[in-house]
Design goal:
single chain; 369 residues; alpha+beta; nine-stranded mixed sheet; three-stranded parallel sheet; 9 helices; globular
Length: 369
Amino acid sequence: MGYHQHLVRSLLALRAEGGLRLADGRLLWPELVLVGRRSEALREIAAVHGLDPDSVSTDLDAVLADPEVDVYFDAQTTSARADAVRRALAAGKHVYTEKPTAGTAAEALELARLAEESGVRHGVVQDKLYLPGLRKLKRLLDGGFFGRVLSVRGDFGYWVFEGDWQPAQRPSWNYRREDGGGIVADMFPHWEYLLRGLFGPVRSVQARTATHLPHRTDESGRRYAATADDAAYAVFGLDGGVVAQFNSSWAVRVHRDELLEVQVDGVEGSAVAGLHGCRIQHRAVTPRPVWNPDLPEESRFREQWQEVPANAEFGNGFKAQWQQFLRHVVEGAPWEADLLAGARGVQLAELAEESAGEARRVDVPELAL
């Protein structure tokens, strides 16, 4: 994510376009400092993309002490994130970070409080809200297409190879709880802001988690025990009585059009939105299925839905949010995806794990600083 989506497809893409034009006509040009553990790898990235080879560092504190650096962005592993964000806030830097913002809700809330006390601008990545398919869905909601929304069903996931006879598509730390791994910690912060941004806040959660594949093989070819959940099945209760059910799994083979699909059913119509596409069926054209298991089904249900047109150029979602955050930093433009929003995502993941561990529904209180 840090390299492909944030560096290449967002910040470098902004530079390739000549910078970001501000409301007063000024041009914002991002100057980048790459920070990581291996200097040679950083220099190689800089060389590939035409960046100053000296604008790399393995010393985060030295970079944070540089008065020319205004914004700190974090795309590290979850277990290393909170400490680095805390140091950036102490240095007076604006902070933008991947999620989850911390390993626990208490720590995530502490970061939000520190950010507010420091007076800096701060934000968390909420890329799903910027996806073309979900933006089409938002347009339908804003236009009243559904009437009263009844339910939401989300299906996310794919088969992540075990790493033995085919390399895994995700790093091995994702499957070790002690390193901050687990699909609940990774995906439930997404579901929190996605549901809140489209339908309303989550007020309760009932979840069941699983580690379907107990052993995997890491990047060095060593077999290891998977100590984190690789699948989660949850029911969320939302404001207004809407019920949302999400399946999240790295141990499922895909039989959908996209890796994430969200179906919304309302009194007046329904929609199925993915990363890019969005299909609808209005009340007036809903077919009349009849249950008869004795005969083969002749209806082609997928063909009875209509594709929602884009009607706009959406572009990369990560880049769109970067543009919004940079405007927030420089111009004070409106911004809602702050570190408190990030804490709400960590809280939902934490309460979902509590629900799974105790086999009960858990209320989700509203967080406040």
